[in-house]
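Thread: quick sanity check before group meeting

JM: Hey all, I'm pulling together slides for Thursday and realized we never actually wrote out the predicted structure for the chain we discussed last week. Dropping the sequence here so it's in one place. If anyone has concerns about the input, flag it before I start.
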Amino acid sequence: MLERHLHSLQVLFNTPENYTLASRRREPQGLPQAFGAVLRCKSHVTVELPPLARLPELTRALPAELKACQQGKSSFTLTAPDALVLAQLDQLARAVLLRLRQDGQA
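JM (edit): ok, ran it. Output follows.
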């Protein structure tokens, strides 16, 4: 899901348990600006999109299926594969990246 956006992002971690992408832009502290991560745990998979915390307009109209998976402002937990939810997460990741580009942050 996140690999489609590699042309403007960089891979920070690429392990079976942690796939993390960041913007090529740096935070004021010098760290890469986090874009998203897929974290595999024993009983679930978590998809994190940290920029959502500062882009609430993108989460206001989330589909019900995706909203049911949401944990906090920018994290989504899946306990079973769901093609619809994964497609919705992909759309959301695209919207986040587009917004970051428009704001000059990606």
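AS: nice. The first helix runs from residue 64 to 67. The longest strand covers residues 18-26.
JM: adding both to the slides.
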